[in-house]
UniProtKB/TrEMBL annotation:
<dbReference type="GO" id="GO:0005886">
    <property type="term" value="C:plasma membrane"/>
</dbReference>
<feature type="transmembrane region" description="Helical">
    <location>
        <begin position="62"/>
        <end position="82"/>
    </location>
</feature>
<feature type="transmembrane region" description="Helical">
    <location>
        <begin position="29"/>
        <end position="50"/>
    </location>
</feature>
<keyword id="KW-0472">Membrane</keyword>
<feature type="transmembrane region" description="Helical">
    <location>
        <begin position="203"/>
        <end position="224"/>
    </location>
</feature>
<keyword id="KW-0812">Transmembrane</keyword>
<dbReference type="InterPro" id="IPR002524">
    <property type="entry name" value="Cation_efflux"/>
</dbReference>
<keyword id="KW-0813">Transport</keyword>
<feature type="transmembrane region" description="Helical">
    <location>
        <begin position="135"/>
        <end position="152"/>
    </location>
</feature>
<comment type="similarity">
    <text>Belongs to the cation diffusion facilitator (CDF) transporter (TC 2.A.4) family.</text>
</comment>
<dbReference type="GO" id="GO:0015093">
    <property type="term" value="F:ferrous iron transmembrane transporter activity"/>
</dbReference>
<dbReference type="InterPro" id="IPR058533">
    <property type="entry name" value="Cation_efflux_TM"/>
</dbReference>
<protein>
    <submittedName>
        <fullName>Cation transporter</fullName>
    </submittedName>
</protein>
<dbReference type="InterPro" id="IPR050291">
    <property type="entry name" value="CDF_Transporter"/>
</dbReference>
<feature type="transmembrane region" description="Helical">
    <location>
        <begin position="172"/>
        <end position="191"/>
    </location>
</feature>
<feature type="domain" description="Cation efflux protein transmembrane">
    <location>
        <begin position="32"/>
        <end position="230"/>
    </location>
</feature>
<keyword id="KW-1133">Transmembrane helix</keyword>
Length: 321
């Protein structure tokens, strides 16, 4: 997928938009590819859904349209988090990342709940028939595009360690599953035509929306749960264990009489605040020894000190712990 994108951009004339694309970093390029895909599929889905009166295809199109807005916000945040801290944002911009992901998950959740409600109302009202043949021909290429973009975004998320691209990949997974389910439903509708089950055809389209909405709820809920922890600064279990294990190894023999450790994560940035109460004659009493301790702790935890927040304070008084 990435190769196709590169070939296309190398063949087309260098317009200002393409020139800007080449200046983006890898994360922003992945989101830009996703944005182009969502715009195309959203326009197609809403157009065909409205033309044949299919609630399920309209839901699919609007779901993709919502993804377009979320991907645009993701690109903005991707640009922000690369900027250095300043007087206004003295801890940098990393906290924008979980905020946008949380907002993203909430919007997708609301879309699913709205679609579920309207579909249930349609079922109660007797349903409606749609042209299953046209709908099926629409869904097949959409499923292929969603699968390709999901694989591309998931690979880029793993490569870059980006939660923004990871959430975007999940959106493509949901969209692909929706399209696959809708396609199966319309295939079943085609088989029902002219059979003794034909009287149930008006219920196929709204029933598809109900089933797919319920299936889709798990992904926004998982996104909300993960990012709400970061917004609330809840300690991440894995890093908390790593810090505890590292201190257990490094503190003995250094005259440390007590310590506290606080850990939080926001986006791609960890915030570690460690306070050590040391004996006045501790080997860590000197500034150089303290710097060496910080460096050793940073390396043991696998942290990049240029992008992570690590504060290790040394004191001889318990009140500063």
């Amino acid at each position: 997928m990435a190769g196709v994108v590169i070939i296309v951009f190398s063949i087309l004339p260098m317009s200002p938009a393409l020139s800007r694309f080449t200046r983006l970093n890898e994360e922003q390029k992945a989101l830009a590819v996703s944005l182009a895909g969502t715009l195309s599929l959203a326009t197609l889905g809403i157009g065909i859904g409205a033309a044949i009166g299919s609630q399920s295809i309209l839901f699919d199109g609007f779901f993709t349209l919502i993804s377009t807005g979320m991907t645009s916000l993701g690109m903005l945040v991707s640009h922000l988090v690369t900027r250095p801290e300043n007087e206004r944002f003295q801890f940098g911009y990393s906290r924008f990342e979980p905020l946008i992901n949380l907002f993203n998950g909430l919007v997708i959740l609301l879309v699913c709940l709205y679609a579920l409600t309207t579909a249930a109302m349609a079922l109660a009202g007797g349903g409606h028939r749609v042209d299953a043949g046209i709908a099926l021909w629409y869904e097949i290429p959409v499923i292929v595009v969603c699968a390709l973009l999901y694989r591309y975004e998931a690979a880029m998320a793993k490569k870059l360690g980006s939660s923004l691209v990871d959430v975007d990949a999940r959106e493509w997974l949901v969209d692909g599953l929706l399209s696959f389910g809708i396609g199966l439903g319309f295939l079943a509708a085609l088989l029902m035509e002219g059979s003794r089950f034909e009287r149930w055809l008006p219920y196929v389209d709204p029933l598809l929306v109900v089933v797919l909405s319920l299936m889709s709820l798990t992904i926004p809920l998982s996104v909300i749960r993960a990012n709400l922890k970061e917004v609330l600064f809840i300690a991440p279990d894995a890093m908390s264990r790593n810090v505890a294990e590292a201190l257990e190894v490094m503190l003995p023999g250094n005259g440390v009489l007590g310590h506290t450790a606080s850990v939080a994560k926001s986006g791609r940035t960890y915030f570690l605040d460690i306070n050590l109460k040391i004996h006045p004659d501790s080997p860590l009493a000197g500034v150089r020894a303290q710097d060496a301790f910080r460096d050793a702790l940073c390396r043991r935890l696998g942290l990049d000190e240029t992008t992570q927040w690590l504060s290790v304070c040394f004191t001889t008084e318990s009140r500063w712990l």
